[in-house]
Amino acid sequence: MKRALALLLAVGVLASWTVIASAEMKEGLWEMTIKTEMKGMPTSMPPTTVRQCITNKEPVPQKPEKGNCVVKNQKVGADTFQYTVECKETDSTVITNGTVTYKGTTFSGSSQTVVKTKGEGGTTMNTTMSGKYLGPCPKK
Q: Taking the CA atoms of the chain, what radius of gyration do you get in angstroms?
């Protein structure tokens, strides 16, 4: 279950940054906070905060090592982006539907992820995310 959860968080980050990269996004260092709740769990997981340098050339700096993920649907509006990402592994399928809205140097969004594992029922996770632009990327 922990492996699946780690994959889901990575997929959530991948999905949201894939959508962000397709818009008029500001290149530089971004900080994103992700909070995930799983149906049926008495307590929610603590929020996760990550910082990533995002550029048009490298819009997704960290991809999951495993999983075959495909962006199935992507709609770009004036400031809102909707997406569907599907990841397939040998024993499971993960489908994430989400929305991200930009307001200058900040964004907010949410997604719902359904994990279907062979021989077991599905698990649903709801994620909220927020982000802010921090400035230029650090020089290497």
A: 15
